[in-house]
Design a protein that fits this description.
The complex is a heterodimer of chains A (822) and B (155). Chain A has 28 helices and 33 strands. Chain A is of the alpha/beta class and 822 residues long. In chain A, a hairpin with a 6-residue loop joins strand 7 and strand 8. Chain B is of the alpha+beta class and 155 residues long. In chain B, 43% of the residues lie in helices and 12% in strands. In chain B, helix 1 packs antiparallel against helix 2 and helix 2 packs across helix 3. The chains are: A alpha/beta (822), B alpha+beta (155).
């Protein structure tokens, strides 16, 4: 551990730390452009020059290129160093257009800061400036190459860190150009980070262009809820509208970055169509009065038809507080426990995953980055949890081998081995791996017997040789048996390795929903409504039409209800069909607690006051409105309204809910600590808790490793897409532009067997209806599987997400014919 | 579309590299030798042959000033504008060339498509400055008299 002195302050840092990073630990921010903690050093910008006064290195050196060594005496304020940095700024500013007044980076621009702080205020250069033509880079980013100072952060991030291949460095010398070969949308779902990482305004956030300066915004820390990872973000809001999201550093989860789904999925909160008015019997009403009416009608239905006639549906995107308040409401009223998950398979899968988790085995996203071998089982990272793909990329860059066992044609921005295996064979495959790993552990000689042609043997070999393996397991495709085997594999490896288990769950608060779910699934509730057993339904912050694939059946069922009460901030058929509607607030308005797939508890406060965005109620500039009260500020936190519905047992504050959960619900005990002892995030530890396990173990004890294949045909999977599947972000106009057309993907051998070819329009027939789509023949996928990208508003004629489909139910649509006889 | 000959030549050089993209420069040179320059279509085809994206290959193509991403004349004149040639009066040669070829300056092609004039930083023949190179041939100790005779050799 070298000890050095920087600006008269002694510091000891780990070997290999650069001087610029050592200074940072002392709170000394040496000016820099090209250096970034996530990207490392390249020594391109020459701005971080400091004076080495004594020790093994002497003279003016770039602090990002020199490792801290014993005895170094460094001055960042030495006159020569300061002057050198001033000159560097002057060079870098030669061609800069000085367009700060119309540049969106102005106000949070590193170049602006360093130029001002270096004292470079008068331009001496009188020559012509080089100019560039900007490119269209898609709906998320604005390109403005003239501002570039050639720090190479963008290309290093985009190509090296994110593994994308459609943005690079063109030209040479002072013509250097960062862009694509031609105009076009950037392909990486992590492209939005370019706006964060560019030290000046070459890449700026396009949707928020000209919306304001950094100091105009209300900026608050928050958590992303567009998948289960819980990446940390900063929210910028202005004029009662969320304007921009940026990544917020979290060492355990997202590091410095975030995905575009999270960055641009926020538009629902300020959308023009967001319902903000309580509605009762078709008329706008006061929230308190509506709550009272709702409570009375729910009670009267329960009195008339029995307590079981009232059903509640909760949400994976609600805060823990709202989920807890809903559970408490059901308890207090004696109604059946709420359903949080769409179907039984999903419920069992997530509960199995959560019950597997144990503080010693389950790991953070950061641990995935540091793994030396990763098995991804039944999970499409880029679609189900995009930042996981970025973490896998970092693991691979550090030398890890990544093996993906999944039936889909997985695409990742990294080199990996894909074992395309049917979803129902996943459990047996993992079991096989456990056996092989166990055999080798007891007899190292057995290692040699695996033939290199056998990918499973190679995977087992990889695991046995690894020191820090991580097993990543999804919950969308794998069945309960597979999830159990994945956990078992991680525990078996644990015996003599630092192994980890990482689950991907289906929603931001799926973890706590799994702990809370004591009842049915949404599908069961829908069936009970259809049979007439349920007369009143309370829907809390979830759109059953998004989650239950068979929309027609759901519509018919809901028509039978005597009372539909919906609490939500999204507009949809569930709010439009409701007899009683109560507007709730979004995470940006009321904050809340979210527990990610690892059990990490993250509390977030609201970022802005509620109310309709000023833009939508005033067309003056600056927008203003005269009158009393704030239009559209009726929405209230869901937990508060639910608490009000439960009458006497109402919670006084959101903190009370967390304490109640810690006291009453197994798995939430760790919430008791108001503050985690170390100042770190609070982690739940739910594994081995028989109370949590009990429910899911009942479901799972019967599931065989290899379920019988029910008579040929294809396994039809509806699978998540990065953009366009998730309930909130699929409403974002800028992300809709990025959506791929959903296709049905099929292995070449199966396509040949069915006499279909790439690009064919096909119709998949179900009992009552059919699904039309385009066929994509994909090389790298499992036989016997037809994988269809999930649309956010599916017209899916099957009851489940996944189905068996007979060969004869797949028909090619003759396009000529449809043209003649439409 | 690459011609079969181009494909074969690219395949041959690619065998000398550990990965396909290592042959990027050679492949571009092969196609340029056959076609005079690298069009967007040629770029796309070469990129496909080397399993690169067009953006990746373009970053290589635009880095090198002897890979031409714009059409050039039948012959390319590279006039050295580096230190030795500058001292020895390259600007005089430039003026003569501009007049003889009736073009505005560097980067321009004669109306008949015969010559394109480009600057070049050092042709490695300082002892014979000022120098220029036409296609593969070097001409040193240039003066007004020599230039006409040299240009006349090229059709």
């Amino acid at each position: 551990m070298p000890q050095l002195t920087i600006d008269d302050h002694p510091i000891e840092v780990p070997t290999g730390t650069k001087v610029i990073a050592a200074a940072e630990q002392l709170g000394i921010m040496i000016p820099r452009f090209c250096y970034h903690a996530a990207l490392g050093s390249v020594g391109a910008c020459r701005l971080c020059a400091v004076m080495f006064l004594d020790g093994p290195v002497k003279g003016l050196q770039m602090s990002c290129m020199v490792d801290a060594q014993d005895g170094m005496v460094v001055s960042t304020t030495d006159a020569k160093a300061v002057d050198f940095r001033r000159q560097v700024i002057e060079w870098l500013m030669l061609h800069h257009p000085h367009d700060c007044p119309v540049c969106d980076e102005g106000g949070h621009c590193l170049l602006q800061d360093h130029t001002v702080s270096s004292g470079h205020a008068i331009r001496r250069y009188r020559g012509a400036k080089r100019t560039h033509r900007d490119q269209y880079l898609g709906p998320l980013l604005q390109h403005e190459m003239n501002r570039c100072i050639q720090c190479y952060r963008c290309s290093r991030y985009y190509q090296d860190f994110a593994g994308a291949r459609d943005l690079s460095v063109m030209q040479i010398g002072n013509k250097v150009y960062f862009g694509r070969d031609r105009d076009g949308t950037l392909q990486s779902p992590f492209a939005g980070n370019l706006a964060d990482i560019c030290p000046t305004g070459v890449f700026t956030d396009k949707p928020s262009r000209y919306m304001g300066r950094r100091w105009d915004y209300e900026r608050s820390p928050a958590v992303c809820i567009h998948c289960s990872l819980g990446c940390n973000i900063v929210v910028s809001a202005r004029y009662r509208e969320v304007v921009r999201l940026e990544a917020r550093f979290n060492p355990h989860i997202n590091g410095y970055f975030m995905c575009d789904r999270g960055r641009h999925g926020y538009t629902y909160t300020s959308a023009a169509g967001r319902p903000r008015q309580a509605i009762f019997e078709g008329q706008p009403a006061d929230v308190d009065a509506t709550l009272q009416h709702a409570a009375e009608r729910l009670t009267s239905i329960a009195r008339m038809h029995g307590l079981a006639a009232v059903a509640c549906i909760g949400s994976l995107r609600s805060s823990v507080e709202a989920q807890g308040a809903l559970v408490r409401l059901c308890n207090a009223q004696g109604w059946p426990a709420p359903a949080f998950f769409d179907d039984d398979e999903r419920l069992a899968a997530v509960q199995t995953a959560v019950a597997q988790q144990h503080a010693q085995v389950h790991v953070s996203l950061r641990a995935v980055e540091n793994a030396d071998a990763v098995i991804v089982a039944g999970c499409d990272p880029i679609a189900e949890a995009p930042m996981l793909a970025l973490a896998l990329r970092q693991a691979q860059r550090r030398g890890a081998t990544i093996v993906v066992i999944d039936p889909r044609p997985i695409e990742l921005p990294l080199a990996f081995q894909h074992i395309p295996l049917a979803a129902d064979q996943l459990a047996a495959c993992l079991d096989d791996l456990i056996t092989r790993v166990g055999t080798v552990a007891h007899d190292p000689g057995a290692l040699e017997t695996g033939s290199p042609a056998d990918p499973l043997a190679a995977a087992a070999d990889l695991l046995v040789r690894s020191r820090r393996p991580v097993i990543v397991c999804g919950t969308d495709l794998p069945n309960v048996a597979a999830i159990r085997q994945a956990g078992k594999l991680a525990r078996v490896l644990r015996e003599n390795r630092d192994s980890g288990l990482f689950h991907v769950l289906p929603g931001a608060n799926a973890y706590s929903a799994a702990l809370l779910n004591r009842g049915r699934s949404m599908a069961q509730v829908a069936a009970d409504i259809a049979q007439g057993a349920v007369k009143a339904l309370l829907v809390v912050e979830t759109d059953p039409f998004h989650h239950l694939p068979n929309r027609k059946r759901l519509t018919d069922a809901l028509a039978r209800l005597e009372l539909l009460v919906t609490l939500d901030y999204l507009d949809g058929p569930h709010t439009r069909k409701a007899h009683v509607f109560l507007p709730s607030t979004t995470i940006f308005e009321s904050g809340g607690t979210f527990i990610n797939q690892e059990g990490r508890v993250q509390k977030t406060a609201g970022a802005l006051q509620g109310g309709t965005a000023l833009r939508l109620v005033s067309n003056t500039h600056p927008p203003r409105l005269y009158g009393q009260g704030i239009p559209g500020n009726q929405p209230m936190p869901a937990w508060l309204m639910l608490s009000a519905l439960s009458g006497e047992s109402a919670f006084g504050s959101s903190a009370d809910i967390l304490q109640w959960l810690a006291r009453e619900v197994p798995g939430f005990e760790n919430l008791k600590a108001a503050q985690p002892p170390t100042g770190e995030d609070l982690l739940l530890d739910s594994a081995g808790r028989s109370e949590i396990g009990r429910h899911c173990l009942d479901v799972t004890s019967e599931s065989p490793l290899n379920p019988p294949n029910s008579g040929g045909g294809l396994h039809l999977l509806s699978t998540e897409r990065t953009f366009g599947s998730e309930e909130l972000s699929c409403r974002s106009p800028q992300l809709i532009e990025l959506e791929s057309t959903p296709q049905a993907r099929l292995a070449p051998s199966e396509a040949r067997r069915l006499a279909l070819k790439d690009g064919d329009r096909i119709a998949l027939a179900a009992e009552n209806g059919f699904y039309e789509t385009t066929l994509k023949v994909a090389d790298n996928m499992a036989e016997g599987t037809l994988a269809v990208g999930r649309h956010c508003h599916p017209d899916w004629p099957w009851d489940g997400r996944h189905a068996r489909i007979a060969d004869r139910s797949i028909k090619k649509i003759d396009q000529r014919e449809t043209k003649i006889n439409p | 579309m690459l011609t079969p000959l181009e494909e074969e030549e690219i395949k041959f050089v690619a065998e000398h590299y550990a990965s396909l993209d290592g042959a990027a420069i050679e492949a571009l040179k092969i196609v340029q030798r056959h076609r005079g320059w690298i069009s967007d279509d040629s770029l796309r085809d070469v990129a496909e042959a080397l399993a690169m994206t067009t953006t990746e290959l373009d970053s290589v193509a635009t880095f090198y000033n002897l890979i031409f991403r714009q059409p050039v004349g039948r012959h390319v004149i590279l006039l050295c504008d580096s230190v030795s040639c500058w001292i020895m009066g390259y600007d005089n040669i430039l003026e003569i060339l501009k007049r003889r070829l009736n073009i505005a300056g560097f980067g321009h092609t004669t109306a008949d498509g015969r010559f394109t004039l480009l600057p070049h930083v050092c042709l490695g023949a300082c002892d014979r400055a000022p120098v220029m190179m036409i296609d593969d041939r070097l001409y040193g100790e240039l003066d007004a008299d020599k230039i006409d005779a040299i240009l006349a050799q090229y059709e």
